[in-house]
Each structure stands twice: as C-alpha cells, then as structure tokens.
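Record filed below.
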Amino acid sequence: MTSSTQTFLNDVLLGLRQTPKTLSSKYFYDEEGSRIFQEIMDMASYYLPQAELDIIHSQSQAIAELFRDKSVDLIELGAGDGRKMVHFVKILQAKTTDLTYLPLDISESILQVNRRLFEQEIPGVRVHPLAGDFFHTLPEIKDRTHTRIMLFAGSNIGNFRKEKAAEFLRFVREHLQSGDFFLLGVDLKKHPRTIRNAYDDAGGITKKFNLNLLKRINRELGGDFDLSAFDHYATYHPITGASESFLVSLKKQSVNIGEEQVQFEKDEIIQTEISQKYDLPMLENLASDSGYVIDSIYKDSKERFAWVLMNVSGN
C-alpha cells in the first residue's frame, strides 16, 4: 500500500469512527469525481463559475489599476489548469512593470498544463509552478522585494468552517508583509433556494458526485459499500451561511473497509462537505480576526459572488 493510500485509509476510518461520521471532501476528486464535478460546473443551477468569470471580466481592470507600475508576484493557491485566470493575469501584466505568476497546486501534471497555457497566451509573463500541498510549498517561496498578491479564487475558503478559515488566513499572512495583499474568492449569502439547488440538483448530478466517494473507497481501499443503500442530502442554513452535504444510510448495515468493519444505523448520516457562504459583517470579522484590513470588494453583476481584496495590517 502506498503512503497516499495509507493516509486515505487512515482518514476514512478516523472519520467513520466519529460521531457524527464524516468523510473529507478532499477525497472527492479522483478521476471519476473530477469528471462529475465538471458536470456540476456546467449545470445551470451551479452559479459559482459563471459568477466568478463575471468578476474576472468586469473587474480585472479596476483591480489591476491598484498595482499600476509596481513589480508584482501573483501567487495562486490551488491554481488548477489556469484557464479562468488568463484574462486577469493578462490585464495585470499590462498594468505592472514586472509580473511573476506562481501557481501552486497539488497536481504536478495540471501545473504543466497551466504553464504551457500561460506561456502561449501571455508570452511575457514569468511562470514558476510549485507542485504539492500549499501548506508545504508556500513556505518554499523565498522572500522577495516585489509586492505579493496571494490569490485564493473559487469558493475554496468555503470548505473551511469559520474558525478554520481564520486559521488558514493567519497561515497565509505569515508569508506576507506590509504592503502585500490577499485576494480571496467568497460565495455570498443569497436566496436559500438558489443555494440548495446548486448543491442538490433535480438531475441528481450532485448526488452522483457525493456517492462517488463511496465508490472510490470500494475501489482503492477494499470497501464494500452498497451505493443503493445510501442517499444524498444537502442543507443550507440562511443565518449561519453554512451549506452542508450528507450521505444517509437507508438501512441498518455493516460495511467492510479493508480489515475494518463499520456499523451504520438506519438514517445515520455521514457529513461529506461544508460550503460556507458569507455576508459583509462575516467578511469583516474574518479579516480582522486574521490580521487583514479589507481594501475593496468586487462583486459579479448579480451580487452572488465576490473577490475580497485585503491588505496586511501592521506586523
């Protein structure tokens, strides 16, 4: 068993021994999970990608103007293949005197795709990819004299509960200094039904995505989950802003995972995902609790999503 498979097994068993049972959303994205997630991205009810692209195309000029004639290092956490960032980086390069783009992602192969894309689309930009968990790769970026913009796009911060989100922002702040910025993508509170429909669609794609995590455990860890014995359920709490996804056991059952056996009661749940939504007071608290000051908030035309530009408060 490889070390990554052993870690996967350890995390799964640890989560399923808890009350309530949990499985980490970071294990959603095997090859099949990534393919299903692309289906989710294409759903009309899944508003997040379109909302963020709206911001990128309508607000990049205003953001880049703040860095006119500066030397800038743009460090993107969880960069992926970089497609959605080409426009923003192109605009930023035109405003700055010197720009280096440092995409960080756990996948080395996807970063090679990223690098080729940027070298083709923006030949003048320097691209320095760093593969690995950014909790480990971020400290590898040595101090520079350039202004740093730390970019955490998408709604990735929503995968952290509020106290963990502040902890993460403080971790990032350790790698910034006065005059640097953190550009954070956040999903905003909105009509509860809009959010519910994004995470529990009528076509069952989000259900398929959630159940694929059990399929992955079966394939990679020797599990024997009966997928027909579990259902998908999603909730949204409009006061706290927490959207959560669960798998529900439809009967009393035993599941084997490798040499371990896990018991489920009828209607017992496994929590698989949280996606935190924010409003302005929550964002202000998050920033101040983490050592930042909000500079500007850039929203899409329907005010569904935002990029929050924060500067580092005094060290």
About this structure: Residues 180 and 186 are 19 Å apart (CA to CA). The mean pLDDT is 94.
